[in-house]
Amino acid sequence: MIRSTLLSAFILLSLSGLAMAGGMPHDRLSDPALETRAQHLFTELRCLVCQNQTIADSDARIAHDLRLLVRTRLQDGESDAAILEYIHSRYGDFVLMRPPVRAGTWGLWFGPVLILILGGASVIQIMRRARRDQQESDNT
Amino acid sequence: MTRKHIITLLPVLLFIGLMGVAIIPLLRGDDPSKIRSVLIDQPVPDFTRAEFSSSDLKNRVVLLNIFASWCPPCEIENEMLLTLKKDHAIEIYGINYKDSDAGRRDYLQRLGNPYVAVTPDPKGELAIAWGSYGVPETFIIDGMGRIRYRHAAPLTPGDLEKIILPLIREIRK
Amino acid sequence: MIPELGQFFLILALLMAALQSYAGWRGLDSVCRRASILQWILCAGAFLCLMVSFIITDLSVITVVDNSHTLKPMLYKIAGTWGNHEGSMLLWVLVLSFFGFLIALQKKLPATVLFVQGLQGVGFLSFLIFTSNPFSRLLAPPLDGNDLNPLLQDPALAIHPPMLYLGYVGFSVVFSYAVAYLLRPDTTPAAWAKAVRPWILVAWSSLTAGIALGSWWAYYELGWGGFWFWDPVENASLLPWLLGTGLLHSIIVTQNRGAFARWTVLLAILTYSLSLLGTFLVRSGVLTSVHAFAVDPSRGLFILMLLILYTGGALLLYGLRAPALKSEAGFDTLSRETGLLLNNLLLGTLAATVFIGTLYPLLLAALNAGQISVGPPYFNATVVPLSIPLFILMGIGPSLTWKRAELGMVLDHLKIAFALTVAVIFLTWAIIVHISPGILIGLGIAAWLFTTAITHFIRRGARRSDLSMAIAHAGMGLAVAGMIGTSLWVEEKSVMMKLGERVIVGRYELTLDKVEAGFGPNYSTIQATLTARMTDSNAAPFTLTPERRHYPVAATRTTEAAIRKTWRDDIYVVLGQPAEDGKADSWVIRASTHPLVPILWLGLLLVAIGGAVGAFQNRKGQQA
Fold first, then answer.
1. CATH for A17-100?
2. Does any CB of chain B come closer than 8 Å to the CB of residue A129?
3. Which of A30, C39, C347, C469 could pair covalently with C246 via S-S, beta carbons 3.0-4.6 A apart?
4. Cβ contacts of residue C261 below 8 Å, gap of 6+?
């Protein structure tokens, strides 16, 4: 008796518990190709109320709603880009785990490339000078 | 100072810039968990429901409130919404987020109904259209059908006095 | 009484740190030495006082009330000492003073280094005493404490912070050596590098172990089935590791050739600065993260001030003094110097990328330019392309000789490893029918790292001096294989199961036997029992018992994944929520197989061991 009460209390409590990837199995789309696309989209979207979690890993209500929306729209034949675009238009950049390229995010996307180029240029310069030094010491 | 100094002093200059930026949110006391809505100053999302549609929100200042009977903060907030309705004659439209018909009826009967109309949103798609990420949330819509403000927390008496009412007065001017 | 004693020790330790610093600057060697040793003893005393308060659950101490509970198991009462903000900062100063103590034990006292180390002691002890006093008392003690966050009640996590701090704070010594060298450049760059190198290896190896333990904890405890989430706090520990790895290699050039001295000194300063930045990010809560347990802006400001003082001061000093450091040495285009230069270019760019990705949301928010999320898709898109050339180079580098390498000889040395790598790729492709190109490339890289490390070691006649690199590089190869296995090669099923139902995942067949409720020492639990059989062998079946726990005192729920480890793969079972319609007779079971995971942990362990072996050998070499 005590056990079954505890069990049901636990069921209620655990409704808001931790992660289950992609939600309940019976929510899954029957078409495996669509479901694969859905799972991929889940990893691109942030669960807004969670801390740095995608909607794929989250049990939060909003994550559940977004998963449902993604699956419904996939079944209606929408493209991945259109679905992301819709959710982006509602929640802004914050919802995208891959920030869009815009003036404000140039530093994010091109900063590493710039650093690699500048670093590479100075490496080449260092190598040139070192080679000259080496040749000089060879000659003496 | 030599030419080499220009290069070796670069790290400290970058560091000063970075720290300048890092200190701003600390001094401002930003809360990173607050998400700003991108729908501010945008037209209300298009939707058509039996209870009300987006066109009903367009020719005067109205409030839109997302609530659920299973949400304790909503219960507390209900009193504020009733105040807005009774004392300030403000029309409030409700989106009933992921709720049962019985739950909603019981909730409004028990606490009083501040809404002009309520539409159920069992799958949460309307809430997503409004860019909502939890309940309760309240939107202020100006006479032109544009969203002017989003409050993503239960309204308190202080919020009413300091934010909601002054903004409504300003819009009405 | 005990907490007051601890408090008293801390104040004395602060005085000792100041004295150590003063004596170090004035060159009063014996005073400096004694102050350093005393500072450590006092910090250790204070730490013991806090530990005793936790062990006896002294409920008049706020830290204990907030983070402990009488019913908590003893291991976590002890670990609770550092499982909170105040205690972890006390651990920081303990480790800081411990390193000061180690420096002070050297026969020839590096007094200027202890001057800088002492300055750091003053800063962090003040931070502790004035903003995060672990010994603050409550006037009216409650009946019991609030418990330690149950997610943190895990053996791996109990030792994760000490290891991580040994790494973070270990780099404080490297920093002190770098600043001391800028202040008083009294030796050649090569001699300086020789003195500082063991400290780098100690710090780096501890940091590796600390990160690996954290990753292990995330994999086994968070129940999400991943080992790395690109979470800001994870990135904060990865940043000093990446730059520290660069430093580890550039110091070799400085030691052997006297070259790159300016760059090495800069890396030494930056690596420690990133450790400080990591602490700042975690402790101030400026970035949202699953890990930001203790969030307090005033503490954040204090740490930011320390960061500005130490890093800003050191970088200014660097800007003014670095041009005087001699840094030139000649080498040819194909040489070990070039290899290590490219290593630093790639590791530096990697660190910069993770740095930008982690801090960019903060930057935009500060400038009111919008809120963005930088998640795994960004890091995967940037880090992977930078890592591939780094790993290829990592196999070639050791075969390059100083000054000038002969291309023919290098190719000759690498041909066996290359043939083995091709063989591994081909065999994997031939044996396993459905395999993606990503997995093949990943396993090929892993095989390349492993075989180049081993063949290089053997070809040179298994020299002791090559041992540490061979272990670390081969370990990295294994770790890469494990990473590929548990990210790209995972097979996963999420199903609704009734009692007695079966499901096949990978090479396992699972049967749900029962679901029961029960109690642990400080939690209640709901536990499923499944029987697993291997479909490809007659090995005895075994049971798996995933749980969902509820810790009433901390009001937290945790998912305890059930994991069975074998050398080939992990079978990983999570008990999910009951059906949403409330029918309690079916349960969501998420089961997955993670190939090669054991190799990931083994590999990371070897990387850490490689660093430790190097530290030990360099230390011995130094005394000889």
1. 1.10.8.640
2. no
3. C347
4. C189, C192, C193, C254, C325, C326, C327
